[in-house]
């Protein structure tokens, strides 16, 4: 059922978005099956029960995302969408009162931590790849999927003649308007060195097997894994929160704030469309 519905979404949404819609709907469908409930047509009472169930096993941000996903799938497939009905709204309010609304924030990867992580990278193939990941993530402030989508062909010059890289698509630019992101000369030189080692065009960030052979482009989920491994190599304190793919954005945004950059410029650099979204990244780390 869900594959037939989502087939109509192909091309209108990013692949990652469609993948998330599929996963969220299948989990809802599985819950309905276990409870002998029809998943479609959905009712407000059933959706409210599903929210109550999720409140026992999931965090509030995950629950809100799942209900929003279900609402989008139902609405665009011309099925009844009960997610905006009073029963569901009240269930979400109950959920917030029960488990809270706060979302766990990523640990900031600020410039001092960036420099420490860079010192743990040697000149091997993996070490150079990790240096590229660290600098590219920090300087561009992009999301994991956007970092993994960068290609060598995207390296360019900004209108002022300085090094830059083109972001062709993003979470807030699904139609490929594109954006030129400035990068340092140091990162540009590192990218050229990396390009020479790969001797290839295509994706910048690549997987590397234990024999040192290059694979396809790096999967977004691998970024958090690599960051945690680098963090472990530093023998950081056990109470230090693990880094994640969002750590680049939070850390760079905090550094810009410390440098006195206005919020509007930080939003522009990070690709945030509203100040409330940008502040949700920063408020827990501002002293």
TrEMBL record:
Residue limits of the Tyr recombinase domain? Answer: 104-287
Q: Which GO terms describe its biological process?
A: DNA integration; DNA recombination
Gene3D superfamilies linked to this entry: 1.10.150.130, Intergrase catalytic core
Q: Does the keyword Heme apply?
A: no
Against InterPro entries, the record matches this protein to: CB (IPR044068), DNA_brk_join_enz (IPR011010), Integrase-like_cat_sf (IPR013762), Integrase_catalytic (IPR002104), Integrase_recombinase_N (IPR010998), Tyrosine_recombinase_XerCD (IPR050090)
Top-rank taxon, per record: Bacteria
Q: Which UniProt keywords apply?
A: DNA integration, DNA recombination, DNA-binding
The residues forming a coiled coil are none
What sequence ranges are listed for the domain Core-binding (CB)?
Answer: 1-78
Write one Gene Ontology MF term.
DNA binding
The similarity comment for this entry is: Belongs to the 'phage' integrase family.
PANTHER family to which the protein is assigned, alphabetical: INTEGRASE_RECOMBINASE PROTEIN MJ0367-RELATED, PHAGE INTEGRASE-RELATED
- The name under which this protein is listed is Integrase/recombinase xerD-like protein
Query: What lineage does the source organism belong to?
Result: Bacteria, Pseudomonadati, Pseudomonadota, Gammaproteobacteria, Cellvibrionales
């Amino acid at each position: 059922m869900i594959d037939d519905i989502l087939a109509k979404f192909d091309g209108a949404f990013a692949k990652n978005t469609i993948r998330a819609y599929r996963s969220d709907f299948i989990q809802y469908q599985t819950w309905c099956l276990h409870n002998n409930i029809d998943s479609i047509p959905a009712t407000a009472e059933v959706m409210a029960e599903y929210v109550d169930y999720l409140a026992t096993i999931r965090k509030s941000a995950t629950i809100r995302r799942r209900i929003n996903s279900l609402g989008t799938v139902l609405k665009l497939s011309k099925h009844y969408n009960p997610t905006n009905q009073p029963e569901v709204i009240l269930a979400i309010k109950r959920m917030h009162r029960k488990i809270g609304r706060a979302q766990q924030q990523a640990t900031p990867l600020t410039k001092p931590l960036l420099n420490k992580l860079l010192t743990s990278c040697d000149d091997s193939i993996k070490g150079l790849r990790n240096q590229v990941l660290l600098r590219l993530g920090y300087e561009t402030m992009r999301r994991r999927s956007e970092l993994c989508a960068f290609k060598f062909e995207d390296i360019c010059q900004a209108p002022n003649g300085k090094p830059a890289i083109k972001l062709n698509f993003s979470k807030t630019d699904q139609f490929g308007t594109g954006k030129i992101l400035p990068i340092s000369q140091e990162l540009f030189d590192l990218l050229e060195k990396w390009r020479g080692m790969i001797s290839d065009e295509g994706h910048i960030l690549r997987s590397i097997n234990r024999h040192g052979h290059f694979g396809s482009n790096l999967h977004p989920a691998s970024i958090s894994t690599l960051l945690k491994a680098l963090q472990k190599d530093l023998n950081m304190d056990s109470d230090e929160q693990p880094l994640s793919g969002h750590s680049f954005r939070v850390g760079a945004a905090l550094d810009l704030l410390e440098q006195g950059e206005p919020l509007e410029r930080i939003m522009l650099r990070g690709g945030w469309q509203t100040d409330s979204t940008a502040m949700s990244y920063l408020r827990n780390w501002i002293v």
